[in-house]
Amino acid sequence: MKLIYHSAAEAELVVVIRFYEQRAKGLGVEFLDEFERSVAGILEAPKRWRVVRGDKRRFLMPRFPYGLYYRVAGDEVRLLVIKHHSQHPEYGMGRQ
């Protein structure tokens, strides 16, 4: 499977890593490691995770309070949103 990032999701990833790194040195790197493990899990079995709306699926990160929202199209996984659990449920749902 090929992973494609929505441009807004790439920006969200950078913001989250910076936020955690400012909170505690090394925590941003730990978030990135957890994120990469989460993406690897999605790519291994992309249809395993719950459908939340239309063809969008959600993977909940185990350690950090974030959900990764994505869709599967053929042999591609498009990562659409990296969303904190406290954000509005509609945040990023219009992305394709």
Description:
With 96 residues, the protein is of the alpha+beta class. The protein has one domain: RelE-like (YaeB-like fold). 36% of the residues lie in helices and 31% in strands. It has two helices and five strands; from the N terminus they run E-H-H-E-E-E-E. A five-stranded mixed beta sheet has the order 1-5-4-3-2. The chain is globular, with a radius of gyration of 13 Å. The model has no long low-confidence stretch (mean pLDDT 97).
- Bin the strand percentage: 25-35%
Q: pLDDT average, as an integer?
A: 97
Please identify the top-level CATH class: Alpha Beta
- Helix coverage percent of residues? 25-40%
Give a brief outline of the structure:
The chain is α+β, with helices and mostly antiparallel strands. The chain is built from 2 helices and 5 strands, in the order E-H-H-E-E-E-E.
Observed structural traits:
2 helices, about 100 residues, globular, about 30% strand, 5-stranded mixed sheet, YaeB-like fold
Q: What's the structural blueprint in terms of helices and strands?
A:
Layout: E1 2-5, H1 7-23, H2 27-44, E2 50-53, E3 56-60, E4 66-73, E5 76-84
Parallel strand pairs: 1-5
Antiparallel strand pairs: 2-3, 3-4, 4-5
Helix pairs in contact: 1-2
